[in-house]
Amino acid sequence: MTVAVRKTQKPERTGTEESPPPARRERRISRSMAVAAILLVWLVLFAVLRGKQTLTLAAADLTDLHRWFNDVNDSIGANRNSNPLFLYFFNEIRLVIDTLVTFVQDLISQPTPGRPVPQVGWLGVVGVVGYVSWAVGNWRVALLAVAGFIFLGLQGLWQESMDTLALTLSAVCVALLFAIPLGVWAGLSDRVNRVVTPFLDFMQTMPTFVYLAPLTLFFLIGPASATIATTIYAAPPAIRITAHAIRSVPQATVEAADSMGATRRQALLKVLLPMSKRTVVMGINQTIMAALAMVTIAALINAPGLGATVIQALQSLSVGTAFNAGLAIVVLAIVLDRVTTAASGRAEAARRSGSPLLKWRRHLLAAGGVVALVLVYLSHTYVWAAEFPGEGRVGSAISRAAADVTTWAQDNLSGLTNAFRDALTNGLLNPFQTLLTDSPWWLVGAAIIAIGTVLGGWRAGATTVVCVGLLVGTGLWSDAMTTLASTAVATVLVMLLGVVAGVWMGRSALVDRLVRPTLDAAQVMPPFVYLVPFLALFGATRFTAIVAAVVYAAPVAIKIIADGVRAVPATTVEAATSTGCNTWQIITKVQLPMSKGALTLATNQGLIYVLSMVVVGGLVGAGALGYDVVAGFSQGQLYGKGLAAGLAIVLLGVMFDRITQAAARRAGT
């Protein structure tokens, strides 16, 4: 197959790849010149109109829209127990979810009535986790899971970790209850897939913060709202990947089943689902990771667990406590990721291993199940097996060590870190932010619309017009531009890092094998975790959020660019080498130009990841829209403003996504 592809590409190499058609070259030049002209006109008008019509709004000020949101919130609160829509729909959903969450919490994390401890204590939880990990994976995964959960207890964060696990499991169960059937339906029906895909794109574009405020309006603040938000946020990966798995089953296999007289139901249960099982399990893995990330963020609406500990520590600038809790989140994420990843390939891995113990697996699993039940009984009956022993001395030591390292870094590295921060802030961030926030709003809007139209076409331009108009309507134009400035600067840094590392990985298989596992592990960690080390280095500033956003978004951009560079045909690179091109010329004249679709896609994903992290940075001094959302949860009179800030974040995300996706499609043509 590879040979056939290369043969068809040889004529293209000599006629098109080395000498692009004049029309295509002219189109590319005209776009870049158009963007340059737009920026030049913007700068000239900025110099003349600076400081006029900027739509600045003070932190405590509200617009009519914000007051209307407040009135709606008050009205809903006053009629929550009398309005039929709430009585028989929203309140019932909240009751069901709250019952589920309470049941799981009573089972593994919270004391129950008449008992000072949960129904299943730490020893039983560790036993069940080890047994399940072994059953769906192998003994190595089981050992990792047991060690990870014991470490959570040694950190002194057993109950917080179990609260996080309880909310994650509850949300994942509810999400999969709807996501798997919907994904199967979308995989079987082209019409359903066309209807569902835009909604999934929209849901995956929105940062985690955005889900919280609207749901508290209908379900109040608490674990139920947190679980519902997590369910909604975590469902799209399972739907999308399940649909892809069903559609990836070879058509010849389906036709063979039909020819043997299989009904639609039999074909689904006996052919489609078994053959797509591995991919579906990977979708479940992504759902679990998304749920864990959302549960930690949901601590802003009183979700219990590790997220609450991290937020309290970040707000009090207690880096040691935040680091210890962040480490627990990482450990929990790694365990859940390894278990579900192992589950997706267990059967195939077992067949390859050829272990003689395979024929005894059922007997060993039965014996392991008995051991797990004994541990559950002990943890239910005896206090020593229910309450994790010790006083969390390991966690205290970790917190002290992190605090000491922070103090040392601030005392000895502050000159270097402050110089780096000030250089980037004064040299890049401040000028760009000033251009966005001090220009008249209509000038910025016109420039953004024009650039969006040039890069993405008229459809992207039309979407940008709508988004800009609604951004003005939120009353938070200045804060939105501040967030836009931080997002744009961070995205530029992400792409610089992505190009350097991505080209290196794409050109070297050895580097790819060494670096890719680290990038995969980095994508497992929830956003909160990235704030902690940079808070220690740079303090509570917007720069902390920008650096954390760069580190958070870089892995996905690097992998996309690396895959794009690797996809450039080897024959093309060999032809360039034979003409005397050096390494730099091959990269800049061949591999990067032929990977422009991957570069644009990396920009799209980098923007979305950066935006979500910059908003989370509102917890550590990033201000702007992230601060508005957080303030809306903590100060009742600012609830409407926080809701409007969430809407503004959505608009920015949609605008970024539409422009960059359209640009990626045009780059690929």
Written description of the protein model:
The chain is mainly alpha-helical and 669 residues long. It is 83% helix and 0% strand. The chain has 31 helices and no strands. It has helices at residues 2-17, 22-49, 64-79, 84-108, 122-136, 139-154, 158-188, 190-205, 209-219, 223-248, 251-259, 264-275, 277-297, 306-315, 319-344, 346-353, 361-381, 383-386, 393-412, 414-438, 441-456, 458-474, 477-507, 509-524, 527-538, 542-566, 570-578, 583-594, 596-616, 624-634, 639-668. Helix 2 (22-49) packs antiparallel against helix 21 (441-456) and helix 29 (596-616) runs antiparallel to helix 31. It is globular. Mean pLDDT is 84; it is low at 1-28.
Q: Give the termini separation.
A: 24 Å
Overall number of strands:
0
Point out poorly predicted stretches. 1-28
Helix content: over 70%
On the 0-100 scale, what is the average pLDDT?
84
What would you report as the Rg, rounded to the nearest angstrom?
27 Å
Query: Structural class of the secondary elements?
Result: mainly alpha
Biggest β-sheet description? none
Strand content: under 5%
Total number of helices? 31
In one word, what is the shape?
Answer: globular
